[in-house]
Write a structure and sequence with these properties.
The protein is α/β, with parallel strands linked by helices. Helix 2 runs parallel beside helix 11 and helix 3 crosses helix 11.
Length: 317
């Protein structure tokens, strides 16, 4: 699989705890010279095979669950990343959740409630296409949405101060800490798209009939809040990138590179866990030997009689 020493500089993408993030310091496209789209796709195919094997071990070991979070501006490639990277996984062990605006029932609970219900079981991988971070991103840009939560201390938008967001960041950190302490591995990806590339992709959705269905006019409305969203992401990533739940800022202008980088991060995390198939006990080993002997003895007929060997016929002279 891809090595950090080769073409994917994972350390540059990983946000260290306590680091104050300025997204302008992070590239949105691939800046190297050793890769191109064709090479990247070949490496990604190799990577998928490795991830498939690791997922099988994860499922067999049944000790960890893995939560993978994707956040990004519209048209950054979250859906295609999920499609291309996770296609090699066994669907029985993977669940994908896409979070939209909360329903009335969900708003009647705390904002983390609907996310608790989608946490992966041990041995499973859960992918959240948008996540609980929407509650400090979209709501940060549109604070009036907070009023829908009917919080006791928030009766008007002017009550939503910086202290409110700091408190919510702490709640998210505590939420993720609880998950990680109980066996959930958390990986968070921000697909860092340039405003120029987003414009190009939105225009493609308008002009290409095969992509018309992807376009929503609301995407243009949110694009008008570009700078506000950049600030919201900087604040959220800075406050919540922790050792147990790190953020990775992935250059997203080149989709082929973004997919490869995400796959490399996931594989490296799995490697660090040293996941392997469970070791059998002496008792289990004895049972396996008994089973082997029994299966090898199936040359006997159901009534216990050995199969008769066919006799060679004597040719008629």
């Amino acid at each position: 699989m891809i090595s950090e020493k080769e073409v994917i500089k994972l350390r540059k993408m990983k946000v260290k705890p306590g680091k104050k993030v300025n997204l302008k310091d992070y590239p949105t496209d691939y800046e190297g010279k050793s890769l191109n789209k064709q090479i990247a796709e070949e490496l990604l195919e190799e990577g998928r095979k490795h991830l498939t094997l690791v997922q099988d071990k994860l499922y067999a070991q049944n000790r960890y669950g893995v939560l993978i979070i994707f956040q990004a501006m519209d048209a950054a490639g979250k859906d295609s990343a999920v499609k291309h990277i996770m296609s090699g996984f066994n669907p029985l062990g993977v669940k994908v959740h896409s979070f939209k605006s909360p329903s009335k029932n969900e708003l009647d609970h705390n904002y983390l409630w609907r996310h608790f219900a989608t946490i992966p079981a041990r041995g499973e991988i859960a992918i959240h296409n948008r996540s609980h971070y929407e509650n400090v991103l979209v709501t940060r840009v549109h604070p009036e949405y907070i009023l829908r939560e009917n919080l006791p201390e928030i009766k008007s938008a002017d009550k939503i101060t910086d202290k409110f967001w700091e408190k919510r960041f702490r709640q998210i950190v505590d939420f993720e800490k609880t998950l990680s302490q109980n066996g959930t591995i958390i990986l968070k990806f921000f697909l860092h798209l340039s405003k120029k590339e987003q414009k190009k992709r939105l225009l493609e959705r308008i002009t290409d009939p095969s992509k018309n269905w992807k376009f929503e006019f609301g995407d243009l409305v949110e694009r008008g809040h570009w700078d506000e969203y950049q600030h919201a992401y900087e604040e959220a990533i800075s406050a919540t990138s922790k050792k147990n739940a790190p953020w990775f800022i992935i250059p997203a202008d080149d989709k082929w590179y973004a997919r490869l980088a995400i796959a490399a991060v996931i594989y490296r995390q799995f490697e660090d866990l040293h996941i392997d198939y469970p070791e059998v006990t002496a008792e289990q080993s004895a049972d396996l030997e008994k089973a082997r002997i029994q299966l090898m003895a199936e040359e006997l007929r159901p009534n216990g009689q050995k199969k008769k060997k066919k006799s060679k016929s004597t040719p008629v002279e």
